[in-house]
Fold this protein.
Amino acid sequence: MRKRLIIFGTGEIAQIAHAYFSNDSDYQIVAFTVDSAYLGETEFCSLPVEPFETVAETYPPSEYSMFVALSYTKLNALRRSKYEAAKALGYPIASYISSRASVLNNGRIGQNCFIFEDNTIQPFSVIGDNVTLWSGNHIGHHSTIGDHTFIASHVVVSGGVEVGEQCFIGVNVTLRDHIKIGDRCVIGAGALLLADAEPDGVYVAQATERSKVPSTKLRRI
């Protein structure tokens, strides 16, 4: 018998979570929930939407689990807040780990994690609570990913790296081995970090500029 699951959220991330949990987990999604102030439609993905304020009455924590499907809004603070609120209600908190991810760290993965396909999680690494690893990342050996962090696609976290809480790490970032990334850092797409990053830092790679030569003047394309 599949375990019954409620998803917090009715946005794109919740829709994606519905697809992944439905097709690649032992959970059966039975409902969605949001704060009553954000309750619009009463149905999402052909399932009922329950106000979070009353969800425990309709779907008691003794019988259902919950997954908080939110993005990195407000530097992951919103997802953190709702994760902690769901725990306070007594819900068992689910994680999704793709069957197509290479998880080699003896399952040292926390609650409410969303780990997509083609992630490689090497031995002796640790993934904290409420962490999102979008598709195609490399988490090196002996590295730690702090709670409430969001890592986009194709990020290379080398060996022995410590990533703090509530960080956002963008697409194609590279973190060299044995560095420390402080809490609440934002590391933009394509950045290369070779040294420690103090908390609350913002690191942005230089964007590619448009060439002065128009494409109509390129003769070999």
